[in-house]
Design goal:
alpha/beta; 7-stranded mixed β-sheet; binds adenosine-5'-triphosphate; binds magnesium ion
């Protein structure tokens, strides 16, 4: 499986990609069509994921670009599934991405009264009827892709009988499942969606917006286009699976006295490898506690990416790179990782944090003395300033950066040899201190005071550079190393294994005993850094506290997955 486009530079393209939806809208606007109004219509039954981001970027940017706007409309035709938490999180995530909808927020349920009136209108026109076929019978009458359907025996009920039955459905007089209201279109249509589709079902359920007012609920197909028309949506952009529903979308609009005429356009949904995107499966991951919630940094949700340290700019750039097409494909998650790495490389200040600390004593540096060194926050951006780095007799380096004996290509610290401490001096390892079980617990080193910011005067070469922190000034930090949640490229496609069996057992490693440089002690929630030689990290927006920082690994410095 390949990305549908090669990795291109992630910096915002000067010219917006000329995709077909932009072209359609530009042509409409050129032809004098009224102001562009799009909408983003999530069902509030989960958190938004990266696929939604593609739809959000498309809908909101089209609205903005053409001097119009985009509505946020909760598609809440399904009374039982929705939850308040989802309504809140969806709004927060859209705002976080940097978009704002045309106030107020809409709910499809606002239009239930109007939709009901229009149902009566269709009955009176002889274009809708109440059908008492059971679900099994309905299926049987519907026909197949190769065979036409048959008319329901209830299809030619009188208008009065239909009106009276619909009223009984509405008032709660009829139990759930007794009957449905169907549009009377064409049981022989080659498009199965046109074979007298359901408009209303009886549901004696509580709805979070309308309470127990309604005992019947409209179907998505009957609701969507009419909601678009009521709001004055000009371009109703949806994913390809709605292509076959378009004749029905148009049929309702053609047969109802709607106040405006929206048009539906379809584009391919985003699929990412190594990622599960179905809301049902994401919910299962949360409910069965395979992850720590919808905003777990391993989740492909916007709130998960946010917590992990992804930036809105990187996500929007990624959506631009993916483009808008009309054929389905699977995008390489490496492209998303490329986008975030690219953004953070440019904008994240540098810092040092030792993941697996080993004490170093600089024996020729006076105890108690603190030498204040300074380091640039970004190697290319002077305007990002400098920070103070205290240098002291006791330091920490990473255990993995020291060997008693090593191959020639080990460019770090080896007993009896030298290495440069990043932003500081060259040190030499002279002696190893071990505990009773033979583990190295301390190194005794000397530093060369004449090597700050310059090479040794005698011309000897010191190749390696390692990071470090002052043992007396550093702050204890918890670091959470995240990796991809799935080991398989197509976790939903395996015939023999459930996606749950393909969860990466090493998707989270928690390091409790890390040593971060002093400047990181009070890192603001969501502050992002490049920890030199380690990767990009973000202060956890909920768990990181002043003096007790918690950092989430957003992404490594380069792509090492599977290596
Ligand atoms: P599910 O079937 O899992 O509930 P959905 O696609 O119905 O998912 P909605 O909340 O209804 O989810 O989606 C809101 C909007 O986001 C819709 O317009 C939908 O087309 C779009 N969308 C959802 N998933 C993707 C995706 N992977 N790529 C692009 N757009 C998407
Ligand atoms: Mg949906």
């Amino acid at each position: 499986m390949k990305a549908d486009k090669p990795h291109s530079p992630a910096s915002a393209p000067a010219e917006k990609p000329a995709h077909f939806i932009r072209k359609i809208i530009a042509d409409d606007v050129g032809a004098g069509k009224a102001k562009v109004l799009t909408r983003f219509p999530p069902e509030p039954n989960g958190y938004l994921h990266i696929g939604h981001a593609k739809s959000i970027c498309l809908n909101f940017s089209m609205g903005e670009e053409f001097g119009g706007a985009c509505n946020l409309r909760f598609d809440d035709t399904n009374p039982e599934k929705e939850e308040h938490e989802f309504i809140q999180s969806i709004q927060e995530d859209v705002r976080w991405l940097g978009f704002d909808w045309k106030a107020p927020v809409h709910f499809a349920s606002e239009y239930f009264d109007q939709l009901y009136e229009w149902a009566i209108h269709l009955i009176k026109e002889g274009k809708a009827y109440v059908c008492h076929l059971s679900p099994d019978e309905t299926r049987e009458y519907r026909g197949t892709l190769t065979e036409p359907g048959r008319d329901s025996p209830y299809r030619n009920r009188s208008i009065d009988e239909n009106l009276s039955l619909l009223e009984q459905m509405r008032s709660g007089a009829l139990p759930e499942g007794t009957c449905v209201l169907r549009a009377k279109i064409d049981m022989a249509s080659p498009n199965i969606n046109m074979r007298d589709p359901a408009m209303y079902r009886i549901r004696h359920a509580q709805h979070h917006q309308t309470g127990d007012k309604w005992k019947i609920y409209p179907t998505y197909d009957y609701t969507h286009g009419q909601s678009d028309a009521i709001e004055g949506i000009t371009h109703s952009i949806c994913t390809l699976e709605f292509e076959d529903h378009k004749p029905l979308y148009d049929w309702y609009l053609d047969n109802l006295p709607v106040p405006s005429r929206p048009r539906q356009y379809e584009f391919a949904r985003l699929n990412l490898n190594y990622t599960v995107m179905s809301k049902r499966k994401l919910k299962q991951l949360v409910d069965e506690k395979h992850v720590h919630g919808w905003d777990d940094p391993r989740m492909p949700t916007l709130s998960g990416y946010r917590r992990r340290g992804y930036t809105p700019a990187a996500i929007k750039n990624f959506c631009d790179m993916v483009g808008v097409a009309r054929s389905n494909s699977v995008v390489d998650v490496g492209m998303l990782e490329f986008a975030i790495r690219d953004d953070l490389d440019k904008h994240a200040p540098r810092a040092m944090c030792v993941m697996s600390p080993l004490k170093v004593v600089i024996t020729n540096f006076e105890a108690g003395k603190v030498e204040s060194l300074s380091a640039a926050n970004h190697p290319q951006h002077e305007e990002m300033g400098k920070r103070e780095l205290p240098f002291t007799r006791e330091l920490f380096i990473d255990k993995n950066d020291f060997r008693e004996v090593a191959e020639k290509d080990f460019k770090r610290l080896v007993l009896g040899q030298e290495v440069r401490l990043r932003n500081a001096y060259v040190i030499r390892a002279n002696e190893v201190v071990k505990n009773s079980s033979g583990e190295i617990v301390e190194l005794h080193c000397t530093y060369d005071p004449d090597t700050h910011g310059k090479n040794p005067a005698d011309g000897r070469k010191v190749k390696g550079v390692i990071h470090w922190v002052s043992a007396t000034h550093c702050v204890d930090a918890e670091v959470r190393l995240y990796d991809r949640l799935f080991t398989a490229e197509a976790p939903e496609a395996d015939r023999d294994k459930s996606f749950l069996e393909l969860i990466n057992p090493n998707s989270l490693t928690v390091l409790k005993n890390c040593k971060a440089e002093a400047s990181l002690a009070n890192a603001a929630p969501e502050a992002r850094f490049q920890f030199e030689r380690e990767g990009y990290f973000c202060a956890d927006r909920f768990d990181s506290k002043p003096g007790k920082p918690v950092f989430n690994r957003t992404i490594g410095l380069r792509d090492t997955f599977g290596k």
